[in-house]
Amino acid sequence: MTKDSQFGQRPLRVAIIEENSIRAAILVDGLREAGILDVEVIEAMTHMLRRLSIIDPDVIIIGIENPSRDVLEQMFQVSKLVSRPVAMFVDRSDGSMIEAAVEAGVSAYVVDGLRKERVKAIVDMAVSRFNAFERLQRELVEARSELASRKVVERAKGILMRTRQLSEEEAYALLRQTAMNEKRKLVDIAQSVVTAASLLEK
């Protein structure tokens, strides 16, 4: 499931994973009373990822009445594999499982709080946390990429300063002008300089 969610551009589609039909009905009622009508219930744990792929939900709610550690870990694996907000309702838990849920990317982990009037608020919180986490992840990737690019440019400047007897400003200007002339990114030109220098040194 790699397609980005398009929250706000279509009615919210929710998948509920819950083997207990009574608990599933509470979740469905809570969503429908809040105006969320596009709801699919998955009652069997088999082929779960394939079912989720077919449903393509915007949000996943997982309900577990009396979770064993094995079942919880299975659900955490689902949460890691799907790129969707996941809200989990369990009847009991402990500190280690809450920590594992956070590490698995569960957006909302609710212990002993399954009531239909709370479902919509929990779903909203899960979506909000998921979007915030995704934004942080994108910013982290961009920051790492920018840092890596700066390191390459610094190395290229150093090579030009050493081999062409240029000042730092002149080396940077040469890289920048070459990038403009060739209509390429500065980091790509810098990487070419670093690669060429590496080949010549061997």
From TrEMBL:
One of its GO terms (molecular function) is RNA binding. Residues 133-194 form the ANTAR domain. Pfam families: ANTAR. GO terms for biological process: phosphorelay signal transduction system. Transmembrane segments: none annotated. Residues 13-127 form the Response regulatory domain. InterPro entries: ANTAR, CheY-like_superfamily, Sig_transdc_resp-reg_antiterm, Sig_transdc_resp-reg_receiver, WH-like_DNA-bd_sf. PROSITE patterns: ANTAR (PS50921), RESPONSE_REGULATORY (PS50110). PANTHER family: PTHR43367, TWO-COMPONENT RESPONSE REGULATOR-LIKE APRR6-RELATED. This is Two-component system response regulator. It comes from Microvirga ossetica.
